[in-house]
Amino acid sequence: MTRGCLWTTGLVLLAVCVKVAVWANNGDAVFIREFTLIRRDHLAEEPLQDSSQKPEDPSSRTARSEEDRDTLWDAWGSWSECSRTCGGGASYSLRRCLSSKTCEGQNIKYRTCSNVECPPDAGDFRAQQCSAHADVRYQGQYHEWLPVYNDPDNPCALKCKAKGSGLVVELAPKVLDGTRCYTESLDMCISGVCQIVGCDHDLGSTAKEDNCGVCNGDGSSCRLVRGHYKTQHASGKTEDTVVAVPYKSRHVRLVLKGPDHLFVESKTLQGAIDELVFDQSGQYHLENTTLDYQKLSDKEVLRITGPLGADFTVKVQFASGADSVVQYIYYQPIIHRWRETDFFPCSVTCGGGYQLTSAECFDLRSGRVVVDQYCHYYPENIKPKPKLQECNMEPCLASDGYKQIMPYDLYHPLPRWESSPWTACSTSCGGGIQSRSVSCVEEDMQGVITSTEEWKCLYSPKTPILQPCNTFDCPTWLAQEWSPCTVTCGQGLRYRVVLCIDHRGLHAGGCNPTTKPHIKEECLVTVPCYKSIDTLPVEAKPVWHKQAIELEEEISVTEEPTFIPGPWQPCSRTCGAGTQRRAVKCQVLLSFSQSVADLPDDECEGVKPAPSQPCYRTPCSGVLGQGKEKSEKKGEEEEEEEEGETPEREELHDWEYEGFTECSESCGGGVQEAVVICLNKQTREAADQGLCVSSRRPPQLLQDCKTQPCPPRWETGEWSSCSATCGVGLMTRTVACTHRPTRDSNRTEVVRNEECQIPKPSPVQACNRFDCPPMWDTRDWGQCSQSCGGGFQRRQVLCKQRLADGSILELPDTFCPSKSPTNQQPCAKQECPPQWVTTEWSQCSVTCGNGIQRLQAVCRKQGDDRAVDPENCSLTARPTKIRPCSLRLCDNSVKPDPTILAQRKVYIQLRKGKKLQLVVGGYAYLLPWTTVVLRCPTRHFRKGHIRWLKEGKPLVGLPHLSITSLGYVKIQQVRASDAGIYTCVAGQVQEHFVLQIIGSKQKLSVPESWLLAGGQQKVGQPDVTSAGERFQELPTSLNQYDNIVEHLLELKGSLQDVKDTADKTHSSEKNRSTLEDERASSELSSMLVLIADTHRLNELMHNLSEGVGGPWGEQLIAQLLSELTITQGETNESTLHPPESAESSTQGPLLYKPNIKAHASRPRSPVIIQRSRKVGVVPSSEMIVHVGVPVLLQKPIASLELRCEALGNPEPSLSWTKNGKELHYNSRVGLLSTGSLRIQSPSRVDEGLYTCTARNRLGSTYLSSWLQITSGKGRNCIHGNAMGPNGPVCSERNNSSQSAELCHGQVCPLRWRVDAWSLCSANCGGGSQTRSVRCMKGPEGRSKEVESQHCFGTGRRPSDTRLCNLLPCARWTTSHWGACNGQCKGPSLATQHRHVYCQDTNATKVPYRMCSGLQRPSSVKNCSTEACALHWHVGPWTQCTATCGRHGFQSRQVTCAHRRTGKATREHHCMWRPRPPSWQRCNILSCGRAGECRDSTRYCEKVRQLELCPLPQFKSRCCHSCRNT
After folding, report:
1. How does strand 1259-1269 pair with strand 1191-1193?
2. What contacts 576, CB < 8 A, 6 or more positions away?
3. Which one, of 1151, 657, 1082, lies nearest residue 911 by Cα?
4. Is the pLDDT of residue 335 over 90?
5. 378: Cα within 13 Å, side-chain hemisphere
6. Spatial separation of the C-alpha atoms in residues 367 and 388, rounded to whole Å
7. At what angle do helices 1110-1127 and 1042-1064 cross, to 10 degrees?
8. Which residue, 379, 750, 820, 1100, has most beta carbons within 10 Å?
9. Other C-beta atoms within 10 Å of 622: how many?
C-alpha cells in the first residue's frame, strides 16, 4: 500500500481524497477510487463568522462576489436569450461599473448555448443570413445570395455570392453571433471575432474528438478496421457484399477501382431495411447519415463521416469487364464494453471490513449484460481489476470502547490466494502434469488464517492449479560402430559400445534394460586357419592405441560457485581393470580477499563431475608361471576347480562396455577409450571386477575424437582496478577473438569477433559490491528571492545512499552522520534605492452616497518603515490613484433621475488617424475618412434604451453608420454628409453633439441643411412630436466656434511652415523665437486632436468681442494654441478614449505633467519647466501663473506670482529681468525663496516682458511672460477670463456709487483677508477648525481693517469654520487570553487564543479597516501546559506473517501517550513530531518455488549483464532474470 492512517473506533469519519493501491500477486499495483478517512478531530477549529456583520453593499442588484467588491464592478446580470435555437449559439451577460471612473476588465462575457443539432430542414445559418438580403437592391438589381464559406481572411464577415453571376460581396461586416467560422469546425463568431470552441462546447476550450467521436477521448472506445475485396465475375453472380459496417461506425472510406458499381443497403435496429443506389457524384442521405459519393473515370470513392445511423452493408453491382478491387477502412465502435459493478456486501457488519467490485460485459446497443466472451473478443478491452474499499467502520457494540480498527492496507493483510505444494509429476519423462490446490484465505488481527469466499481474492489473478512437467524426451539406447573382428582368420567376436542418451545428449541412466541392443556378436573372417580351432576365440591385439590418453581441461576457480575437480589418483590395480579416484569440491573465489572458499555442494549449479572412474593399464599375465615349485597335482586341482566355477560365474556376471572416457583434446584431434565394467546380469548393476572371468574381458577399444580443427577462441586480458570504492563499481579487461593457425603453432592471430562463438566473455564485471555509507547530496542553488536589499536563495539537500545494486536510496536526514550542509544562504546584499510605497486608501470623502478615495504614498527604503525625503524617489513617478467609493444611500435620497454625463469639449482634428472616440455635449471639427465612435455615457439609465436623433429626426442606420447595443454611434470613414447635430435621448434628458467636417485648405464644410437655416439651426422640429417628446432647442448658434477654429487651423499651418523653414536654417543661426516655434510645431505635428473646454473658448470669444483685436487678438489665439499643446502634451488617450463613467468636465485643461527625471546622476544644463497657468486652488484675490504664459489682467487683484521652476545638475540659480533690464526689487515686487517673482497689487506701472533666466556651469536658459493690465472699457466689473482669477471679484451692482468709488483706478482697495486654520479640536470622531476673516481697505502694506459689510460687494465672505478629522474614533480591543488548551506545538507547549476586534469610543464593534492604521495585537501565542507532555509510544513488533516471499509484514501499536501517566490520547496532539511507522515488510526472501520466481528490482537486466546472478543476494531479488544463468 502506498499510504495509510491509523484511527480508533468511536470517531466520526469524513471521506476526502487519498490514493489506495492494492498489491496484486504479480507485483502490480491496482489503483482504486481516491478516498481517505479523516477524523473529525483532525479538522481545524475555525471560529464561526460574526453573524452581526452586514453585507457590504445592500444596494447591489444581486449578490456580489469578493472579486466584484474588490474591482468595483456590480454583479453580473442574467444571461441574454440565445442567438440561436439550435446548432450552437451565443449568449452574453453584462455588468455595470459602480465607479465614476474606469473599472478594470470587461463589462461583457459570453457563453455557448443551444448546443443541440438542428433538424435537417432547418437550413444553414449563414445561408439564412445571406438570403435575408434578397429583397435589397445591389447595384440596381435584386440577387439570390448564396453563402461563401471558409474565408481565410475574415471568416466572421458575411460574404455572399450572387447566384448565376458569381459576384462575391461582403453584405455585412460581421455575421450573427453563433455562426460557425468554418464548416468543419465548432468555432463560432461572436461580435465579429472567431472564438475557439472545443468539442465540449465551451468557449476557449481546446478539447478535440478522437476517432471514436468521444470528446477528449483516447481512442480506446473503437477499433480501426481495414481490408480489401476483389470481385469474382466468373462466379456467375450479379452482385456481392463488400463489407458490413456496423451501427455508429465513423470515418468510413471505400475506393473501388474497376468497372463495377457500389451501392448501400441499411438495416436499422428495429429491422427496417432501405437501399441507396448512386447515379452521380454528390451528397446522399440514408438513415440520418450523410454519404459523399464521387464517381471518377477509373474509380468510385465513398466517404461517410458518421456516425452511421444504422447497420450499412456496402455491396458491388457487377458489370462486364475485368474484376474490380475495393479497399475500405473505418472505425468500428466497441459495442461490448466492460462495466464495473457496484460494491459487493461488506465483509463484516461492524468494526471495519472491506467490500469489492467486479466487472460485467455490457452490450451498448441492447443495453443488456452479456457473457464475458463478447468482451474478450476485443483485444482493446481490458477488464478492470476489482476495487476495494473499507466499510462498516462504526465500532461494534460488544467492544470495550477502545477496539483498535486498522485499515487493511496497514495492519490487516488483504485476502490472498494460498496454494499447496505441487504434487509429484505423473511421468518421469515424455510430458506429464502436476497439480495443487488453490484457495482464497484471509488473516485476522490475531494472525489466524481461514478460508473464505473466492470473490474476495478476485482483485488479483488466481494462481494456476495445473502445470505440465517433465516435458523432455525419455532416454534412448544409442549403439556405436562395431569393432574389427577379434581374429585374423576363421570365426571370432566383435564388440560395440551401447550408450543410454537422455534429452540433453548426455550418457545417463534411465533406459529400459530389456530393450538394450547386444554389445558382442560372432564374426567370420574369410581366411582359412591352419591351426587348430580353439573353443574360445583368441582376442586380437589392438592395432592402434593401447590406452586412452587423458587430457582434461583444467577448471579454474571463479567468482561463481563451481565444481573444481582435483588430480586423479593412481589406478587401484597395476594390471587389468581398476578404479581411479579424485576429490571434487564446490569452491568460489572471494573478490574482496582474493582467497578461495569451500562451499556445500548444493551451492554449485550443474552436474558434479564423477569422483571415480575405471582404469586399465596392461593386461595381467597368467598365474601358472608362479607355482613352479608346487606339485603338479595341486596345480591340476586348482585348474579343475577353476574350470568348475567358470560356468557358474558366466551365468551371473559378464564384462560390458560402459561408454567412453573424455576426449584427450577439445579440438584438433584426440583419442578416447571404451570403459569396460563387470556387470551383474540380474540386477544390471556394476559388480567387482574379480567376479568376472579375466580371460573373457573384452579388448581395449580406442577411437579418434574431436578431429575438427580448433575454431577461433576468445582471449582475455587482466582486469583493471575498480572504478568505485563502494556501491558497485566496474572492472574492465580486453577481450579479443584469436586463432592458432596450426595445432603445433605457439603464436595466435586476432580475427573478427564474428568468428568466435557466442557468448563473448564480458569485458566488464562488477566490483566492490557493497552499500556505500549514507552521504549528503546537494543540488544547485536556486534563484535569489530579492534583486536587492538582501534576499535568500535555497537549494535541496538530501540524504542519499548508493546501494550494492547500483540504485540510489533516499533516506531520512537522521541517517547521514555529519551535520547537514546549509540549504539557505543570503544573496543580493546591495541596498535597494528608495521607492514609492502605497500605504492605504483614505477614508471616503462622504458619509453616504458616492465619493472618492485617494491612495496615499510615501518614499521609503526597502525594509525600513521610516519615510525618507521624497526627493530621493523623484526618479520614479509618484503613484497617484483615485477611486470612487459608494456608501449606503443617503436617508433623504430618492430614486435619481437619469442623467447624461456630457463633456463640454471642442475637438479639433489636426492629422488623420484611424479611430476617434468622442463624448456628447460638445463640438467636433474632424478630417474626412476618419472612423468616429460617439458615446453617450449615462447614469441611472440602461445603455440599451438610449435613442439617437440627427437634425431632430430618429437616426437611421446606414452601411457605414450603426447604433450598437451599448448605445453608441459608430461612423465608419466619416464624410461631409455625416456633418450635423446628433442628439442622445435618455428618458427625459438629452444632450447634443455638433459634428463638422474640415474641408480642403483647412476650411470648414457646412451642411446644406445649415445653409438653409442661416447657420442658426435649432433642434426640435414639429414632426418629431408624434413620438410624445418635445426636444429643447439648442441655446446657442451651432457654428459659433467656426471663426476661432479656422484661426487655429491657419496658425497651425503657419507653424508648420516655420518648422520647414527652420529645418533649412543652420543650427547656429536659429534664434530664440525660431526654437520656440519649432518646439510648438513639433508638438503640434505629433498630436492627433486638440481638445478645448467650451467655457475657455467662450472667454476667448468674449475678449475678442470686447475689442481686443489686431495683433493682440492673434496673440490670444496663439496663446490658446500653445496652452492646448502644453496641456495635452502628455497624451491624447484620456480624451480620445474617455471612460464610460467619466464625469462631466467643466474645469480647464489638466495640469501638464512633464516626464523629467529630476536628480539624474549625470550633469545637465538647466531647463525651465513650462506648465499651464492654473496651480491648485488659490484665493480669488491672488493669481499664480507659470512663466512662459501671457498674463492679461482685466480686474484688480491682491497679488500676482510668476512661478519659475528649473531643473539641472548642478542646481541652477534663477534671476529676473523686466523688458531686458535687471529687475529692481522693493516692498511690492519681491523674490520668493523658490525663485518665483511676486508682485503685490499689480498696476499699469508693472506692465512689461518678465524673463526668468536659469544658469549653472553647463549653460543657461530663459523663458518670458508678457504682463498687460486693461482698463475694462468703463465697465466697473469684468468677469474672469482665461487669464484672470476664477470667478468675479466685484459686485454686479454696476451703477452703485460705492462700487464706483471702490473700483476707481487700477486696484480695488477692499478685499477679504483670511488667517491660517487653527488646529483641529479633536483627533478623531469629528472636530472643527476656525480662522479669522477680516475686511481690509487700502493697498498692501498700508491697509486697515473696516467693517465686513464693505467687502460684501467683492464676493462671498470666506468661511471661518470647517469640520475636520471626521473619521470615527476607533482602536484595537482584545479579550482575555483563553485557556492553554490549543493544539500541541511541541513538548509541553500548546497555544492559547484571544479575540481581537476594532471598536469605537462607544464600545461598538466597527469594521477592521477603521483600525487599519494601528498595529494589530496578536491573537495567538504559545503557552506551557502539562497536557502536552506527550510522546509517541511504540509497542513490540508482531511475528512476521510469512517466512518468505513478498507478502510478509509485521506490525506494532503506535499511540500518542502522556510521558508521566502513560495514558493514550488523540494522535493529532503528537503530530508536531513525525509518527513512527506502525508496520514494515519482513522476510522478503524467495521461497524457492517455481511459481514465485520473479524480479523484485528494476536493475535485474544490469545484474544479468554484469554476471552478478551467482551471488545469493542478487539471485534472490532477480530470480526471473537469473533463472537460465
Report:
1. parallel
2. 616, 617, 618, 619, 620, 689, 694, 697
3. 1082
4. no
5. 23
6. 26
7. 80
8. 1100
9. 8
Round to whole Å and give the CA distance between 858 and 872: 11
Q: Please state the φ and ψ torsions of residue 672, each to the nearest 5 degrees.
A: -145, 150
Calculate what percentage of the chain has a pLDDT beyond 70: 77
Separation CA 673–CA 1186 (nearest Å)? 130
Q: Work out the end-to-end distance of the chain between its first and last CA atoms, rounded to an integer number of angstroms.
A: 33
Separation in Å, CA 344 to CA 353, 391, 786, 966? 12, 11, 58, 61
CB–CB of 316/326 below 8 Å? yes
Distance of CA 150 to the CA centre of its chain: 33
557/576 Cα distance (integer angstroms): 35
Helix (H, G, I), strand (E, B) or coil at 731: strand
C-beta neighbour count of 1190 within 10 angstroms = 21
Half-sphere CA count of 609, side-chain side, radius 13 A = 20
CA 1416/CA 1425 separation, integer angstroms = 26
pLDDT at residue 244 is higher than 90: yes
Instruction: Report the alpha-carbon distance of residue 291 to residue 281 in Å, rounded.
Output: 10
Q: Quote the cell numbers at residue 347.
A: 465483509
Residue with more model confidence, 9 or 503: 503
Distances (CA, A) of 1018 to 245, 510, 1006, 1038: 78, 130, 15, 8
Distance in angstroms (rounded) separating the CA atoms of residues 1249 and 154: 62
Helix (H, G, I), strand (E, B) or coil at 1082: helix
Joined together, the cell numbers standing for residue 826 give 543570503
Task: Write the CB contacts of 599 (distance below 8 Å, at least 6 apart in sequence).
Answer: 561, 586, 587, 588
Q: Which of 1054, 1119, 1044 has its CA nearest to residue 1081?
A: 1054
Specify whether the backbone of 258 is left (phi greater than 0), alpha (psi in -120 to 50) or beta: left
Q: What angle do CA 662, 665, 670 make, to 5 degrees?
A: 85
Residue partners of 1139: CB distance under 8 A and separation at least 6: 101, 102, 937
Contact 653, 680 (CB under 8 A): yes
pLDDT digit string, tens, across residues 1021-1068: 434 333 334 344 554 466 778 888 888 888 777 666 545 554 554 444
Q: Treating both helix axes as pointing N-terminal to C-terminal, what angle do 1094-1105 and 1110-1127 enclose, rounded to 10 degrees?
A: 170
Nearest C-alpha neighbor of 176 from the set 83, 86, 108: 83
What span, in angstroms and rounded, lies between the C-alpha atoms of 784 and 825? 9
* Cell numbers at 961, concatenated: 453608420
What would the pLDDT profile of 562-593 be if each residue is shown by its tens digit?
899 988 888 888 877 788 889 999 988 876 66
Confirm if 336 and 363 have CB atoms less than 8 A apart.
yes
User: How many other CB atoms are there within 10 angstroms of residue 1277's CB atom?
Assistant: 19
Length of the chain: 1525
Distance CA 1344, CA 1367 (A): 40
Which has the closest alpha carbon to 452: 416, 409, 488? 416
* Whole-number Å distance between alpha carbons of 344 and 357: 6
Q: How far is CA 142 from CA 136, 145, 159, 165, 1261, in A?
A: 6, 9, 16, 12, 72
Cis peptide before 307 (omega within 30 of 0): yes
Q: Are 434 and 469 in contact (CB under 8 A)?
A: yes
Which residue's C-alpha cell is 545512499? 801
Q: Is the pTM of this model over 0.90?
A: no
Count of C-beta atoms within a 10 Å radius of residue 28: 13
Indicate the pLDDT class of residue 1117, thresholds 50, 70 and 90: confident
pLDDT band at 935 (very low <50, low <70, confident <90, very high): very high
